[in-house]
Design a protein that fits this description.
Layout: E1 2-9, E2 17-25, E3 28-34, H1 35-38, E4 46-48, E5 52-56, E6 58-63, H2 80-93, H3 96-112, E7 115-122, E8 137-144, H4 153-166, E9 172-178, H5 186-199, E10 202-207, H6 211-219, H7 223-231, H8 243-249, E11 258-261, H9 267-273, E12 282-285, H10 287-292, H11 300-305, E13 309-312, H12 325-335, H13 341-346, H14 350-355, E14 373-377, H15 385-390, E15 398-401, E16 404-405
Parallel strand pairs: 1-4, 1-5, 6-7, 7-8, 8-9, 9-10, 10-11, 11-12, 12-13
Antiparallel strand pairs: 1-2, 2-3, 5-14, 14-15, 15-16
Helix pairs in contact: 4-5
The structure holds zinc ion (ZN).
C-alpha cells in the first residue's frame, strides 16, 4: 500500500482539492481526498509528489497506432478519397516489421503525453503475437473491411476474431471495428454486432467523416462514390439516405457503439439522435485530424445538447502530427468557445470511460477505481487547475498505470 501527496488533486469526481492525497493498493485506489483526512492514520510510506496536479490518466478514444510511421508522409489532401488512396499506397509499402515499430513508437508517444488508456484500431493483427505487452491499458479493435462482396465473410470475421483473441492483452481488452459504411457491408456490420453482443465486446466504427461519404450515401455521387464503384463495391445502398441513417435504419449499429467523427449530419440525423434510445451513443471527435481533412464544422453543440457522450481522440498520424490529447483539447477549445476546461478534461477521462462501459473503473481518482493517473507541474490555485492542465505543454514525468509507476 502506498500513499501519495500532491499540491492539487483533480479527481474528476468533484471539485479540485488543494493539498490532496490518495492511497493505492495493488492495481486500485483505496482512498482519495484532502491530505489531512487521507493521511490522518499516518501511513508508513508517503510519497510527496511536490508542486504538481495529479489527475486521472488520459483516455484516447480513437487511434490507429499502426499508422504511426506515416507522420508527415501525407500532405493535407484536396479530397477525402485522394487521402484514402494515399494511405492505401503507403500501407502497401510498409512491412510487418514497420507496423510493429510503428505500434511501439505510438505507445511511447501516447505515454509521454499522459495517455494511460487507448482505443486502438488494428488493421495489421498479424503483428500482435510479436508485440511486447503494451505499457498502457489498450483496447485493440480489429478492423473489418469488405469493399467487394466476399463469400467467406463469416470465416473472415470469426477467423480473425479467434486469431485475435488468442493473442490476448493483459490490461484492456478486445473489440471489433467494421471500418465505415462505405468499406464494410451491411452483412459485416451485422456479424460484428452479433459477435459483440454474444461476447460482450465493444464495437467502434467511422461514420459520416467526410462530405464525400455523405454525398455517396445521399446522392450516389462524388469522388468517393466513383472510386468505390470502380473497385467493385455494390452501390445499391447509395442514393437515398445519410451514412448515419444507413447504419441506424438497417440495425447495423446500436447505442453501445463508439462512433468516430459524425462530421456530416443533416437535420434528420440530428432528429433521430434526439430519441431516447440514442442518448447513450458515444461519439469521438478528433479535432486536429478534422482540421487536416478540411471537413465541415463538427456539430458538437447539437450532439452534447442531445445528451450524447462526446469524447476526444487523436486519430492517426496519417492525418495528425502528434498523439497528444493536450493539443487536441486546445484545438477543440479554439473552435468551441463555450466548452469549459472542465468539459474538455471530461472528454478525455470520464466520458471515454463511459464509452468503454467502465465508468466505475476508469476516468476518476476514487476509491475502487483502477489506479491510472498522471502528474503535471502545477502550483496555482485549485480554481485555475483545469485550465492549467489543458495548457500543459510538457511531457509527463510521472504516471501510474494499474497502480504501477511507469515514468
Ligand atoms: Zn480513424
Amino acid at each position: 500500500m502506498t500513499a501519495y501527496q500532491c499540491h492539487t488533486l483533480v479527481t474528476m469526481g468533484g471539485p479540485p482539492i488543494e493539498n490532496g492525497a490518495f492511497v493505492v493498493e495493488g492495481p486500485r485506489f483505496v482512498k482519495a481526498g484532502r491530505a489531512a483526512d487521507v493521511l490522518a492514520d499516518r501511513p508508513k510510506e508517503v510519497v510527496d509528489l511536490g508542486e504538481v496536479a495529479v489527475m486521472p490518466g488520459l483516455i484516447n478514444a480513437h487511434c490507429h497506432l499502426d499508422y504511426t510511421l506515416m507522420r508527415g508522409a501525407i500532405l493535407p489532401a484536396q479530397s477525402f478519397s485522394r487521402w484514402v488512396k494515399r494511405i492505401n499506397a503507403l500501407k502497401r509499402s510498409l512491412t510487418d516489421r514497420d507496423y510493429l515499430r510503428a505500434t511501439q513508437l505510438g505507445f511511447e508517444e501516447l505515454q509521454r503525453n499522459g495517455t494511460t488508456t487507448v482505443l486502438n484500431i488494428v488493421s495489421t493483427p498479424q503483428i500482435l503475437p510479436l508485440l511486447p505487452l503494451p505499457p498502457i491499458r489498450t483496447w485493440f479493435f480489429l478492423e473489418l473491411i469488405d469493399v467487394r462482396p466476399r463469400p467467406w465473410i463469416e470465416e473472415h470475421a470469426f477467423g480473425s476474431w479467434t486469431f485475435f483473441s488468442e493473442n490476448g492483452v493483459q490490461l484492456g481488452g478486445l473489440g471489433l471495428s467494421p471500418h465505415a459504411p462505405y468499406t464494410a457491408s451491411a452483412k459485416l456490420y451485422q456479424l460484428a454486432l452479433e459477435c459483440s453482443r454474444s461476447m460482450n465486446l465493444r464495437v467502434t466504427t467511422h461514420v459520416a467523416e467526410s462530405r464525400e461519404e455523405y454525398a455517396m450515401f445521399a446522392n450516389a455521387s462524388g469522388e468517393l462514390h466513383d472510386f468505390l464503384k470502380q473497385l467493385g463495391r455494390p452501390m445499391g445502398d447509395c442514393g437515398s439516405t445519410s451514412p448515419l441513417r444507413h447504419l441506424i435504419e438497417n440495425n447495423l449499429i446500436d447505442s453501445d457503439c463508439i462512433v468516430a467523427h459524425l462530421n456530416e449530419l443533416d437535420d434528420r440525423d440530428l432528429e433521430i439522435l434526439s430519441r431516447t434510445e440514442w442518448r447513450n451513443l458515444s461519439v469521438v471527435h478528433c479535432p486536429k485530424s478534422h482540421r487536416f481533412l478540411h471537413q465541415n464544422r463538427f456539430p458538437l453543440e447539437g450532439l452534447t445538447e442531445r445528451g450524447l457522450n462526446v469524447c476526444l481522440g487523436t486519430d492517426s498520424l496519417a492525418s495528425n502530427d502528434s498523439l497528444n490529447l493536450f493539443s487536441e483539447m486546445r484545438m477543440a477549445q479554439k473552435t468551441y468557445q463555450k466548452l469549459t476546461a472542465q468539459d474538455l478534461l471530461e472528454m478525455v477521462t470520464t466520458r471515454p470511460a463511459r464509452a468503454l462501459k467502465l465508468q466505475h473503473e476508469l476516468g476518476k481518482i476514487a476509491a475502487g477505481h483502477l489506479a491510472d493517473c498522471i502528474a503535471l507541474p502545477y502550483k496555482g490555485a485549485p480554481r485555475d487547475v483545469f485550465e492549467g492542465i489543458v495548457q500543459n505543454r510538457s511531457p509527463i514525468k510521472w504516471m501510474l498505470v494499474n497502480g504501477q509507476k511507469l515514468r
